Amino acid sequence: MWKTVQRAAMATVHLVVAAAMCFGLYIFITVLLITAVGTLAVVGCWLLPEAVLLIRRIAGAKRNLTTLWTGREIPEAYRPMTGTLRERLRISVQDPSTRTDVRWMLCYYLYGAMLALALPLWPVGLVVDGVWAGLLRRTPVALPLIVKLADTEARWSSLLLMPSPKARLARRVEELKETRADAIAAHEAELRRIERDLHDGAQANLVALSMRIGLAKRAYDRDPDAARKLLDDAQDQAEQALTELRQVVRGIHPPILTDRGLVGAVRALASSSGLAVSVEDGGLEGGTRAPAAVEAAAYFVVAESLTNVAKYSGADRAEVQLARTRRGLTVRVRDEGRGGADESRGSGLLGMRRRVAALDGTLEVTSPVGGPTVIDVELPCVW
User: Minimal CA–CA distance to 156: which of 119, 109, 98, 122?
Assistant: First the structure.
C-alpha cells in the first residue's frame, strides 16, 4: 500500500507540473496573438523567430519532464535559428519541427490539465485502497488510476513531440554538413602538419646531406681524411632523414596497424607509453578486422589519449578497452588522474573529435575535477 501511495504521489507531482505548464501556455496565447498581429503588419515580423525560439524552449522543457517520467529521451531535430532576419523568418516557417511543436501545443491545451481528474481520486483512493489494500491485503484499485493518468499524459506528449521523419532527415543533413566541415578542417590540419614535418625535419636533413656530400667531393683530392669525415657525417644525416620520414609515414597511417592489427598496435602503444596500461581486446584479436580508416581513427584516439594521460593527468596507470559491437567499434580510455580535461586548452581532444566525426562516429569525454577521465568513442562500421 505504501509503495502505491508513493507512486501515486510522484504521478501527482508530474501532473501538477504538467498542469502548471498548461496554464502557462494559456498565458502564452497573448504572446502568440501579438506575434501574429505584428507579423501580419510586417513591422513586427522580427517577433516571429523569437516566438518560435520560446516555443522551442517550452517544448524542450516538456520533453525533459516527459523523459523524467518515462525514462525514454525524446530527441530534438531543430534547424539552427541563425543568419539574417530573412533567413530566420524562413527557418521559422519552413522548419518541420515548428509545426510539430505548434501541433503539440494546441493539443496540450486540451489534455494538459489531467490533474483535474487525478485530484478527486486521492480521497477516494485513500479510503477505498486503505480498506481494500491496507486492511484486506488486496491489490489497490483507485490510486493506480492516478499513475495511469500520468502515463497517458506522458505517452501523448511523447507521440506529439517526436520529430517527424522530415525533421529528422533535415537535422541529419545539418549534422553531415557539420561533420563534413570538421573532416575538411582535420584534413587541412593534417596536411599542414605533414608539410611542416617534412619541411622542418626530413627536408632540412636532406639539404644538409647534399651540402656535406658536395663538400666531401671538393675535399676528396686534397684532404681525403676530411672528406671521409664529411661522408661519415652525411651517412648519419641520411639515417636521421630516414628516421624522420618513417615518423611522418607513421603519422599518416602507422605500418604497425597493417602488420599487427588494431589490438597489436594498441598494445605496442601501451608498452611504449611509459604508463602501466591494461588493454582489453573485447574479442577483436583474431577476428574480422574493421576497415582501415576505422582502425586508424581508433589507433590515433588511443595514442592521443595516452599522451594526454602522461602529460596532464598525473596518473601512472590507464585502461584501454576495445570492443566489437553490432553497430561498429567502441574504444574506451580511462585514467584515475586529476581530471578537468578541457577541449579549449589544446589537449588534442578537438582533433580527436574531428577525426571521429569524419567517420560519423561519436566521442564523449567525462572528466570531472579530481578524476577519473573517461573517453568513450563509437565508430560505426560494417563487419
Answer: 109
Sign of the torsion formed by the C-alpha atoms of 224, 227, 229 and 235: negative
* H or E element in which residue 323 lies: strand 317-324
Q: Cα angle at 90 between 89 and 91, to 5 degrees?
A: 90
- Residue 374, phi then psi, degrees to nearest 5: -130, 125
Q: Is 364 exposed, middle or buried (0-12, 13-18, 19+ CB in 10 A)?
A: exposed
Distance CA 263, CA 298 (A): 10
pTM assigned to the model = 0.56
Q: Is 294 helix (H, G, I), strand (E, B) or coil?
A: helix
Other C-beta atoms within 10 Å of 294: how many? 20
In contact, 341 and 312? CB cutoff 8 Å: yes
pLDDT tens digits along 104-159: 999 999 998 888 888 888 787 777 766 666 666 677 767 888 889 999 999 999 99
Q: ∠ CA 143-148-150 to the nearest 5 degrees?
A: 105
SS3 label, residue 183: helix
Closest listed residue to residue 254, CA positions, set 286, 287, 288, 301: 301
Q: What is the pLDDT of residues 51-107, one digit of tens each?
A: 999 999 999 999 999 999 998 899 888 888 888 988 898 988 888 889 899 999 999
Q: Which of 239-253, 321-335, 369-383 has the lowest mean pLDDT?
A: 239-253
Question: Backbone dihedral region of 137: left (phi > 0), alpha (psi from -120 to 50 degrees) or beta?
Answer: left
- Give the cell for residue 226: 676530411
Nearest to 303 by CA among 368, 184, 311: 311
Residue ranges with strand state E in 86-131: none
Cell of 1: 500500500
How many angstroms separate the CA atoms of 229 and 218, rounded? 13
